[in-house]
Structure formats: structure tokens, C-alpha cells
Specification:
Number of helices: 10
CATH class of the largest domain: Alpha Beta
Helix content: 25-40%
CATH topology of the largest domain: Rossmann fold
Number of domains: 2
Number of strands: 13
Distance between the termini: 35 Å
Structural class: alpha/beta
Largest sheet: 7 strands, parallel
Radius of gyration: 19 Å
């Protein structure tokens, strides 16, 4: 299948592009490089462009004979979404609407959307199932939910077959440790802890040590990037005969902040300063996703359930790329 990977030069998108190619599909990367890295997609067809450009999208979908679209081009920083909500609505919602309009105009029907478990907000029960109430608590989560609703109503017209995949924390490095995580600024826990182990940060902060969890720190769901991409691939292939698919993704077990820190120390062989500070407002004690539906319906299997294996691949990539994809 000829697949347009929007945001394909980013962390998840570049890993998805690599996996599509290995599975026999033909990926075409579409990215404006505002967040992505051209070095991550060497050897693949690449178009530098913005999702706001309807004419360019129509041209690409037509001339490249695209059969399906995968979307990883959203802004993702929750804190930034609170500071700049209009930018998030423009990029995450308005630009996705333009992309769907281009697909409708050119008759491209298959769409895989990288959504987020942030659509659930502060869930009343964990692990989270797909039917739990959607109550996003920040603009980022709201934009993801808005796109899901837009896809739902478009699918009812018979002009869109879509899959929405919801998850918390993508982690690790894929393609034998060659495609890693390089965000600027970085806000994800595992690369932040690794930066401390590499002496690129003064310390790692633990926000709250008095939560009702075994070690008092928050527990979160981490999913290896290749496990995440394999679910997207399975969803893409299932769209042949389904108009609407919605799945949670997770590795079946959450890990605490302290467990992640200790794992990085073990894998790296490095010690570093850990500073305990007060809780951040709005941090639930435990956030994990129930992925049993994806396991049952897609036949999805997690290859990297253990945090140590996830951290090992991340450490491998950061060790070889101490400045990320830069010089």
C-alpha cells in the first residue's frame, strides 16, 4: 500500500515509516520539519510541506497515488497547549480538517490517527477502557478528542475508514536502536532521566512522593515505540473492511517514576542526583490503559513489556547520539 505518513520525520512517524517499509508497504513522508528531523528518514520519499496547504495535499495524494494516510503531525506538549491553545487548535484540529478534506477530494479513504489517552482526562477508574467517559482537562486532550469526533462523523458519510489509537507514553528507540526520541524541549521522563545519567542535566525531579502507590511516586504506562507502531500497522490493514476502529494501547503494566529512575541507573551504570519536590497539580496517582480490545481484535502482541528493555533501547540511541539528530 502507498501510505502518506504525516509527521513522518518525527519520533513516532520515523519509526512508523521504517516499519511500513519492512512490512512491504511504500511510505511517503510529509513533514514541515518544525519538530521532525530529516536525518531520521534517510532513504525514504520525502515531501516538505504543511498540512494547512490543501492544494499541496491534493497534489501529493493524487500524483503519488496514495492509498492510505497516517497522522503523527500533532503538537504534543500539554503545558504548551495551556499557554497557546489557539496554536494547538490550528495545528491539531484545523490542519487535520484540511487533510481530511484533501482525502475526500481525492477519494483516499483509509486514515490512521495517532490519538491520545489524554482524551480521558482524569479517569475515575484504571486501567482505562475505551468506553470510559471522555473528559479532557487540557487543550491538547481536547484537540485529540475533537479530531476523533470529526473522523467519526466523516465515517458516517461513507467517505472515511479510520482508526484512532489512544496511548500514554511512547518510549525507547526502534529499528535496532537507530531511531530515537529527540524533542526540543524534552518533557518525557525516560529521556530526561537519561540526560541526567549523561550529565546533561543537573538532576531529575520527582514531583510528589506521597501518592497512594507502592513507592509513593506516580505510576504511568510506557509503551515501546515498535510495539506502538506495530499496532498502527495492524489497524491500517484492518481498515480494508472496517469504517471505524478505536483502541487503547499499553504494555499491560505501569511503572512508577522511581522505578524508571532506578532502571536508568541500572542500564547506564551511572549515578545522578534525584531531587524530591512537591506534587504538580492535576497529576493522578496511576494512569494505565487497558489494551485487551486491541490484543483481541487486532491480534496485537507486545514485544517489550519490561521497562528495562524499553530503557535499554533508549540508552543505546542516546549514547550514540548525545546531541540527538544534531551535529
Amino acid at each position: 500500500m502507498k501510505v502518506l505518513v504525516c509527521g513522518g520525520a518525527g519520533y513516532i512517524g520515523s519509526n512508523m515509516t521504517s516499519m511500513l517499509a519492512k512490512a512491504g508497504h511504500k511510505p511517503v513522508v510529509f513533514d514541515n520539519l518544525s519538530k521532525g528531523h530529516k536525518q531520521a528518514i534517510k532513504g525514504f520519499d520525502f515531501i516538505e510541506g504543511d498540512l494547512a496547504d490543501l492544494d499541496l495535499l491534493v497534489k501529493v495524494l493524487t500524483e503519488d497515488k496514495i492509498e492510505a494516510v497516517m497522522h503523527f503531525a500533532a503538537f504534543i506538549e500539554v503545558g504548551e497547549s495551556v499557554e497557546k491553545p489557539l496554536e494547538f487548535y490550528r495545528n491539531n484540529v484545523c490542519n487535520t480538517r484540511t487533510l481530511l478534506a484533501a482525502m475526500e477530494k481525492t477519494g483516499v479513504q483509509k486514515f490512521v490517527f495517532s490519538s491520545s489517552a489524554a482524551v480521558y482526562g482524569m479517569p475515575k477508574t484504571v486501567p482505562i477502557t475505551e468506553d470510559l467517559q471522555k473528559e479532557p482537562i487540557n487543550p491538547y486532550g481536547e484537540t485529540k478528542w475533537a479530531v476523533e469526533r470529526m473522523c467519526h462523523f466523516q465515517s458516517l458519510t461513507g467517505r472515511l475508514n479510520y482508526a484512532a489509537l489512544r496511548y500514554f507514553n511512547a518510549a525507547g528507540a526502534g529499528a535496532n536502536g537507530t531511531l530515537g526520541e529527540d524533542h526540543k524541549p524534552e518533557s518525557h521522563l525516560i529521556p530526561l532521566v537519561i540526560a541526567a545519567a549523561m550529565e546533561k542535566r543537573e538532576d531529575v525531579k520527582i514531583f510528589g512522593t506521597d501518592y497512594p502507590t507502592p513507592d509513593g511516586t506516580c505510576i504511568r504506562d510506557y509503551i515501546h515505540i515498535e510495539d506502538l507502531c506495530s499496532a498502527h500497522l495492524l489497524a491500517l490493514e484492518k481498515l480494508e473492511d472496517k469504517s471505524e476502529l478505536v483502541y487503547n494501547l499499553g504494555n499491560g503494566k505501569g511503572y512508577s517514576v522511581r522505578e524508571v529512575i532506578e532502571t536508568v541507573k541500572k542500564v547506564s551504570g551511572k549515578n545522578f542526583k534525584v531531587t524530591e519536590v512537591a506534587r504538580r497539580p492535576g497529576d493522578p496517582p496511576i494512569l494505565t490503559a487497558d489494551a485487551s480490545k486491541a490484543i483481541k481484535e487486532l491480534g496485537w502482541k507486545v514485544k517489550y513489556p519490561q521497562i528495562e528493555k524499553i530503557v535499554e533501547t533508549a540508552w543505546q540511541w542516546h549514547s550514540k547520539n548525545p546531541n540527538g539528530y544534531g551535529k
